[in-house]
Amino acid sequence: MMTDEALLPLGFAFAGLACGIKANGRPDLALVFSEVPAAAAGVFTQNRFAAAPVQFDRQVLSLNPTGIHAILINSGNANAVTGTAGLAAVRRSAEALEATFGLPPWSTLVMSTGVIGQPLPVERIEAALPALYRALRADGEGLRAAAEAIMTTDTRPKMAWTQGRVADTVVRVAGMAKGAGMIHPRMATMLAAIVTDAEVTAAALQQALNRAVAHSFNRISVDGDTSTNDTVLVLANGLAGNPLLDGISGPDFEAFVALLTDVCTRLAQAIVRDGEGATKFVTIRVTGLSTDEEAHRVANAIAVSPLVKTAIYGGDANWGRILMAAGNSGVAFAPEAAELWISGGVDPQTMLPPLQLVAAGAPLPFAESASAHRFAQPELLIDLRLGAGPGQAIVWTCDLSHAYVTINGSYRT
Questions:
Q1: Distance between CA atoms of residues 226 and 52, nearest Å
Q2: Is the pLDDT of residue 96 over 80?
Q3: What's the rounded Cα separation, in Å, for the pair 164 and 7?
Q4: What's residue 2's pLDDT?
Q5: Fewer CB within 10 Å, N- or C-terminus of the chain?
Q6: Distance separating alpha carbons of residues 80 and 52, to the nearest angstrom
Q7: Which residues 6+ apart lie within 8 Å of 353 measured at CB?
Q8: 340 has pLDDT over 90
């Protein structure tokens, strides 16, 4: 249940139910619905095997970026690497929803998640649409039902919401996401549907989403693999009544970007915290390089290193693996300038203070027990400084446990 349903954007409703795609009978069909036409924007996977719904949504956004009413999402089947039959299935599901709801053509976006390479049982989706319509709710319970219906290996639904002022008008942003494995920042790295009642043009909305994703979903990694289906969609229906945001600069646009980034960041972090088999949440901060892009590359190299991630899982204070991964990033820096700190904990009141392990590229004397104590914490901060340059980046990741292998060793079965 939401703590404050007043934060839900005006004019949106949500639903989730089981339509029979998942063999276990769990919810597998979700809907996000706007009562009025909404501007839309999206970012999509860079995987060359882009799933059928990714291809379809790109087409819809090019044809009708200001008249979207619905996002239809199924779990249990990715509809990826399914050829022309997969494209026909996704179009058929969108047309069926538009017919059921009395919507104009090209007003529905579609997302799918689940097993790759299996035909989408679109007839099950079609049969469930009347019940999905009846299940729509404009409250926190509706949002939670939708968030639960898009889960695969997730252990819990992921939702976030906020509000703030844009040009002295209250604007609300809310969203849901799914993702626990096959997560790596090469665009979006999972599925997310975000809604806002802000009045904003489709072009400005796309730029706002690009910026929000760059500092949220593109700053996380669980296992270094980018899915075929990665999609982040945002709908803006304008019911807040703020002055139209039609530019990509100025205080009003920046205020909106801040709200959107806040929701995206909390959803992105929730994905990492729920990483498949994860037991620890890790923040990696890299500073001192020439550019932010270089700092991001170094942080990413650390985040995806199996040796770093398994050491963190085992609570092994093997800090040399962190420097090894940074050195393998392909970024040029002076090793003799490296400084490394480790801190850990969850509660700011009891969080362990930073412990410096490396200075001027060489190890410092420290108590092994002090280092191991920090590596054993459920939340860990790795702070690596590689010079005096302005470039900096933060990436969020998790450890790599035995459970990750168990989950993915039998994902289809």
A1: 16
A2: yes
A3: 10
A4: 46
A5: C
A6: 6
A7: 343
A8: yes
How far, in Å, CA of 102 to CA of 75, rounded? 24
pLDDT at residue 350 above 80?
Answer: no
- Say if CB 15 and CB 30 are below 8 A apart: yes
Q: 107, 112, 67, 106: which is closest to 89 by C-alpha?
A: 112
How is residue 164 written in tokens?
A: 């703030």
Q: What is the spatial distance between Cα 409 and Cα 49, in angstroms, rounded to a whole number?
A: 22
pLDDT at 227: 61
On whether the CB atoms of residues 125 and 91 are closer than 8 A, the answer is no
Structure tokens at 265: 């960041």
Type of residue numbered 360? A
Catalytic one among 45, 108, 152, 189? 189
pLDDT at 183 over 90: no
pTM of the model: 0.88
218: which 2 tokens?
């593109």
- Tell me how crowded residue 328 is: count the other CB atoms within 10 A of its CB: 12
**Predicted confidence band at 187 (pLDDT cuts at 50, 70, 90)?**
very low
Residue 133's closest CA among 100, 91, 104? Answer: 100
Q: What are phi and psi of 260, to 5 degrees?
A: -65, -40
Tokens of 219: 């700053």
Q: Encode pLDDT of 193-206 as tens digits.
A: 999 999 999 999 99
* Section 390-408 average pLDDT: 83
Three-class HEC string of the chain = CCCCHHHCCCCEEEEEECCCCCCCCCCCEEEEEEEEEEEEEEEECCCCCCCHHHHHHHHHHHHCCCCEEEEEEEEEECCCCCHHHHHHHHHHHHHHHHHHHCCCCCCEEEEEEEECCCCCCHHHHHHHHHHHHHCCECCHHHHHHHHHHCCCCCCCCEEEEEEEEECCEEEEEEEEEECCCCCCCCCCCCEEEEEECCCECHHHHHHHHHHHHHCCHHHEECCCCCCCCCEEEEEECCCCCCCCECCCCCHHHHHHHHHHHHHHHHHHHHHHHCCCCCCCEEEEEEEEECCHHHHHHHHHHHHHCHHHHHHHHCCCCCCHHHHHHHHCCCCCCCHHHCEEEEEECCCCCCCEEEEEEEECCEECCCCHHHHHHHHCCCEEEEEEECCCEEEEEEEEEECCCHHHHHHHHCCCC
